Fold:
Amino acid sequence: MVNIPKTIRRHCPHCNSHQEMRVKEDTKGRASAMKKKHRKRQRKIEKGYGSFPYEDPSHRSRGRKNPTSEKKDLKLECKECGKAHKPRKPIRAAKFSIE
Structure:
């Protein structure tokens, strides 16, 4: 379990100095249905392509186990200027909380 404090003192790229930051979990926006990969998948589903989209999961993972944890993106908001940025590396954790 990864516990992260609600405020962290980090470097703000906008102020160009170390400031207190509010920590939030960044959420992804809704994916566009018009992206090429979605159009390609829909074309395969409608046309029929072997056993697609119901394939054997053992072929997909090729003997490797999939990770049980997810990468969580943090969003840091500066208390001085109010602008937000993301740190470069996301945190990989199965359980994650902001205290």
